[in-house]
Structure formats: C-alpha cells, structure tokens
TrEMBL record:
Domain of life: Bacteria
Locations listed in the record: Cytoplasm
UniProt KW keywords: Cytoplasm
Annotated source species: Acinetobacter puyangensis
Designated name of the protein: Regulatory protein RecX
UniProt cross-references to Pfam families, sorted A to Z: RecX_HTH2, RecX_HTH3
Gene3D superfamilies: Winged helix-like DNA-binding domain superfamily/Winged helix DNA-binding domain
UniProt keyword Cytoplasm present: yes
Keyword Cytoplasm listed: yes
PANTHER family assigned to the protein according to its UniProt record, in alphabetical order: REGULATORY PROTEIN RECX FAMILY PROTEIN
Length: 161
C-alpha cells in the first residue's frame, strides 16, 4: 500500500480523541468497556483512552449505572427474562448490581404471563406438546422454571393474587 490515493488516517489523540468520545456518547449510551473498545478501534493509544474514559465517567457523561438501567428496560420491552438480561449485562461488561434496584421492582410473573398470552393466548394448554412448547418458549426468553410453571398453569386472577 505504498502509493495509496487515499491520505493516511490520523490516529485520534488529545482533543480529537475527546471529541470522538463525546460524539460517540451523544449518539448512544455505552458502557465503559464498550466505549474503550470503540475508541481503541480508531487506533488510539490504550493509556490515553483509559484516561479519557475515566474522565468522562467522573464528569457523568458516561455511566455504567445509566447504561445498566437502559439495557434492563430495553430487554424487558423485548420480552426477555432475568437470565437473558443478566447475560446482556455480562456481554457489555456491566456489574448486575448496578441495575439491582430496578431489577427487584419488576414483576417477572406478570412479564412472563403477558408474553405467554401475547404468543399463545390465555387458555391453559392441556395438550402436553403445547404445554412443552410454551415452557420452551419462556425458558428461551430467560424466565425461571418456577415462574414458567405458574404462568403455564395460570387460571385467572383468583389463583395468585
């Protein structure tokens, strides 16, 4: 690549790296780990990136706690259960404790029930194959087995409330 018609890419440093960090955070919420990886992909120096990410976190431009809450709400809207949400938090290298308060406020039974009704209707499945299908569906979505069994056998309001 000696005589490339394209100019060589400049590696972002200093104010250029800072502007890039702000530009990334203006578009989307990132975890510390994700932001660091994103900035390193531009060829920036590791020490400089770590310093910048730490500074952005101290000034509250970047927050793993905010990212955890946003990710939790997003996953719930997509019909995901506790196990899948913890998996998503781990993927973004976020401590699940950061979203624990919001996590504890969620009624997982109600989430699973509304998901089951949306997909299969409100009737209780009597056919073992249909019941197994519902169980597999809710397991894949990340719900615990005790919640799944309550949802699959749920008859109405008088059952659990």
């Amino acid at each position: 690549m000696k005589d490339s018609p394209y100019p060589a890419k400049k590696v972002p440093t200093g104010n250029r790296l800072r502007a890039l960090g702000f530009a990334l955070l203006a578009k989307k919420e990132y975890s510390r780990s994700d932001l660091k990886q994103k900035l390193l992909a531009y060829g920036a120096d590791l020490d400089e990136v770590e310093t910048l990410v730490e500074e952005l976190a101290q000034q509250h431009y970047q927050s793993d706690e905010r990212m955890a809450g946003m990710l939790l709400r997003s996953q719930i809207r997509q019909g995901r259960g506790p196990a899948r949400i913890k998996q998503a938090l781990k993927k973004h290298d976020i401590d699940p404790e950061l979203a624990q308060q919001e996590y504890d406020e969620v009624d997982w039974f109600q989430q699973a029930l509304s998901l089951k009704i949306k997909k299969f209707g409100s009737e209780i499945a009597t056919d073992p194959k249909q019941k197994a299908r519902q169980i597999r569906f809710l397991q894949y979505r990340g719900f615990a087995m005790d919640v799944i069994m309550k949802v699959v056998n749920y008859k109405g309001e008088e059952d659990f409330y």
